[in-house]
Design brief:
96 residues; mainly alpha; Alpha-d-glucuronidase, C-terminal Domain
């Protein structure tokens, strides 16, 4: 158990989820600036934030599935289930 009262597994999963939640919140905030910032700059940042969200989700899912093989515990409440299997994430990683 950690100082937070959570197990290491729960805390790790919650941290990965908080990264995804942060970028989603940032994208929502950025969306409110449409029309306030010049269109070129707005679109450039919006695209970068979309990439950041995609990567945060990929990283969360791949890492948690990997570490879950050792933790042997289900994902804690509040963590989105991965879209793919660990094998699928490993295959994609080999493509990079």
């Amino acid at each position: 158990m950690l100082k937070s009262g959570d197990s290491l597994w729960d805390e790790m999963a919650l941290r990965y989820q908080s990264g995804v939640d942060w970028v989603r919140s940032t994208r929502a905030t950025w969306a409110t600036l449409s029309g306030v910032i010049d269109p070129e700059r707005y679109e450039a940042i919006a695209k970068k934030l979309a990439i950041q969200e995609r990567d945060a989700v990929w990283w969360r899912d791949a890492c948690l599935l990997y570490f879950q093989t050792f933790a042997k515990q289900p994902l804690p409440k509040g963590i989105e289930p991965p879209a793919k299997t660990l094998s699928e994430y490993k295959e994609k990683a080999l493509d990079w």
